[in-house]
Amino acid sequence: MTSTLQEGILVGCGNPLLDISAVVPLNFLQKYSMNEDDAILAEDRHMPIYGELVEGYQAEFLAGGSVQNSLRIAQWILRQPRVAVFFGCVGEDRYAGILKEKAQAAGLDVHYQVKRDVPTGTCAVLITGTHRSLCANLAAANNFTIDHLEEPSNKALVDNAQYYYISGFFLTVNPPSIMQVAATAHAKQRPFLMNLSAPFISQFYMAPLLAALPYVDIIFGNEAEAQAFAEAQQWPSGDLREIGKRLVAMEKKNPARPRIAILTQGCDPVLLIQQDSVQEFPVTKLAVHEIVDTNGAGDAFVGGFLSQFVQGKSLDVCIRCGNYAAGHIIKNPGCTYSGEPEFVE
Ligand code: AP5
Ligand code: NA
């Protein structure tokens, strides 16, 4: 980092979740009718998962939650604390303490809404070989309300930021908060970034996603998420480039700043789609022995991207830093890093 950035230049909203991660046999997934690469919300029948992981599978506890992951990674790369502000809802318990401690250690400025009688959210990360299946029990995270953003000190943080990032996951929690942040970004002509987050968002939360999309300047997603969006829109082609072009062409509030789509595809090149152009950014493939787990790769990609975007760097630099950050996180358990960042423009 060369110059000092404004504190709180980046504001994010999401679900603060503690990940409970363990290697499990396939029949564990089968027992809960889950697939190897799912990302789902827990229903009543999934509730025993968390206890079982802790009691029988030597589960590890890791700070998670998609947006908080991305912001932690951005902070790590920036090496300047409090560039990013995070809003989300937690309970008043030990898990909330762990999340806050990890976030603050990374330099993140967290402003949790606290709900006394609800436990902090957790996400089961079920690892089977190179696959991971996620089952999020949002709990307190689901109780986020817009009045938290309307508290004067929090409102000031939102008003003073220059960049805004919210996950698609947050659409299941509080669309009015998303629309308020989006409207602020729009009124101040500041970039508003979102993520498709998981196929189930397009499948079941398309209405609030479509309401927010006109405000979105940059939309992130992976292959499966882009395909799910296209299917939900009944678009004829499953080709990622075509999907990207249609995504950027959808209605936009501020046509002077055309929408950009950034689609990741694992170890295949990242696609940058702007109006009619599609550019590819190669990914440095990791050797099998270097891979610990890919959990958090997509979130880390966004974190690396944001760390450069808030410095006004070109999209080319932002995407290369996204790939750098994702590659680093893959060599570490969950969405964690080790040592000092080594990204060079
Ligand atoms: P998870 O879905 O595991 O994390 P992710 O960040 O989305 O990572 P993925 O591994 O799914 O990556 P991707 O498919 O998005 O990206 P891609 O493979 O294209 O979820 C993690 C977190 O989600 C958890 O902490 C959990 O708490 C949270 N969560 C779950 N449910 C939630 C909810 N309801 N609300 C909030 N949070 C929730 O890869 C991206 C980039 O990685 C590539 O561009 C590349 O740079 C790199 N890369 C990928 N594969 C390779 C490779 N083999 N070699 C080199 N680089 C690679
Ligand atoms: Na990892």
UniProtKB/TrEMBL annotation:
The active site is at D299. Keywords: ATP-binding, Kinase, Magnesium, Nucleotide-binding, Nucleus, Purine salvage, Transferase. It holds the Pfam family PfkB. One of its GO terms (cellular component) is nucleus. InterPro entries: Adenokinase (IPR001805), Carboh/pur_kinase_PfkB_CS (IPR002173), PfkB_dom (IPR011611), Ribokinase-like (IPR029056). It catalyses: adenosine + ATP = AMP + ADP + H(+). Its EC number is 2.7.1.20. GO terms for biological process: AMP salvage; purine nucleobase metabolic process; purine ribonucleoside salvage. Its main location: nucleus. The keyword Magnesium applies. It is found in: Nucleus. It is an enzyme of class 2 (transferase). The keyword Nucleotide-binding applies. Residues 37-338 form the Carbohydrate kinase PfkB domain. ATP dependent phosphorylation of adenosine and other related nucleoside analogs to monophosphate derivatives. Monomer. This is Adenosine kinase. It comes from Drosophila simulans (Fruit fly).
